[in-house]
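Field reference: sequence -> structure
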Amino acid sequence: MPASLALHPLESIKPDTGTAITPATEPSHAVTEVEPSRVSPTATEGDDVTGVAQEIPAGRMRRTVAEMRKFLGKAQAHAAPVRKQIVPLGGQPQ
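Structure field:
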């Protein structure tokens, strides 16, 4: 006996009733102005650098990106520039 395919019979296809679908709200093309953030990204990064710079000498964290990510609760893309500001070029992480 050949394997049968799970096909729907033609009777199960519902005919088009011709009813129009109306949207719940009218479409709007109005421009919505977005208020700029009150905290600039550079101000936040500066605060993060200050916080990390205080924690490292106190011995509460190491100078690694991984430690900074944990402390800041942010991604590597944010923690890496913070580390570059803390550890000068050629400097050795602790």
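Note: The mean pLDDT is 74.
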